[in-house]
Specification:
Layout lengths: L1 H31 L9 H10 L9 H20 L14 H7 L1 H14 L2 H32 L4 H11 L5 H4 L1 H14 L11 H4 L9 H26 L6 H21 L5 H10 L1 H13 L1
């Protein structure tokens, strides 16, 4: 019964956390830019408004299916990632499974946006897939490196090993090269500057979201809120010892997110080719070096 309750309420919990984190990001960047910024709960208001709008236009069943695939892939990934108090599905899926299911939301977005035939959306999704090729390879190598270092592919076991040995056994301490490579890749995975090439509001009018409205846009915002928490959680579990309780978990989420937002606030946006080239010149070689250190 406890597992059933977690299955029902975990998406709601992570959605609430993710929504406030997105609101916090708006406020944080606004204060750096000497603006007041919207209230932290504004993202929740936006989603509530969008989900209550009537949608009169559809781009076909593939478009509808792809949006559900986008959200469903994110929820599937969520259940395989251990959080404090719930790791039931983590025993059935290791870091390799997580790596594969992480691709489902991106493919769902590509299918959905492709059906709209909007040029801005098509440009945005092509940029997103290029960035996927940029950050996914170094992130995959950090997965492999941490699995080799600890002789296990189970994310749950990786967390237990780090917690048993204390801070000295955290992944960021035992292999800082992989930790830095994964951190740079995480910046690209979250789509934060300087890797904000997919949205690029001044160039392609928010890219994939251009043709979305009403419930479609609301579902995309829900997916983004949960996805941010999931991606940060992966890094926390691999390199920051996971979390033994929800207070520690939320603190680590916000500290890590604040670090990435600080980079976002002071950097401009790369061109798409420069962003991919940067990923292949910096985090990819770092990840390779980190893996080689483990092997030899």
């Amino acid at each position: 019964m406890n597992v059933v309750l977690w299955i029902i309420f975990l998406p709601i919990i992570l959605f609430v956390i993710g929504t406030f984190m997105l609101g916090y990001s708006r406020k944080f960047i606004a204060r750096i830019e000497r603006r007041y910024g919207p209230p932290i709960q504004q993202v929740f208001y936006d989603i509530f408004k969008l989900m209550n709008k009537k949608t009169n236009i559809s781009h076909g069943w593939m478009h509808d299916f792809a949006i559900l695939m986008l959200l469903g892939g994110t929820l599937l990934t969520m259940y395989f990632i251990p959080v404090p108090g719930f790791s039931y599905f983590a025993q059935y899926g290791d870091v390799l499974v997580i790596m594969y299911v992480l691709l489902i939301p991106a493919l769902g977005m590509a299918l959905g946006v492709g059906e709209t035939a909007n040029p801005n959306g098509s440009i945005g999704i092509s940029r997103a897939l290029m960035m996927l090729a940029g950050y996914d390879i170094p992130f995959f190598l950090t997965f492999i490196g941490m699995a080799m270092l600890n002789n296990t592919t189970s994310m749950l076991d990786l967390i237990h090993l780090q917690q048993a040995g204390g801070i000295a056994t955290w992944g960021i301490i035992t292999n800082p090269i992989l930790g830095v490579a994964a951190l740079i890749a995480l910046q690209g995975m979250l789509g934060e500057k300087p890797f904000e090439v997919m949205v690029a509001p001044h160039e392609i009018a928010t890219g994939p979201m251009t043709e979305m409205g009403g419930k479609y846009l609301g579902i995309m915002m829900i997916q983004h809120a949960i996805g941010v928490v999931i991606e940060l959680t992966i890094y926390i579990n691999l390199f920051l010892g996971g979390a033994v309780n929800w207070f520690e978990y939320i603190v680590k989420l916000f500290v890590l997110f604040t670090l990435l937002l600080s980079v976002n606030a002071v950097f401009g946006r790369f061109r798409t080719d420069d962003a991919v080239r940067f990923m292949w010149k910096i985090p990819l070689p770092l990840a390779i070096i980190g893996v080689l250190f483990i092997i030899f």
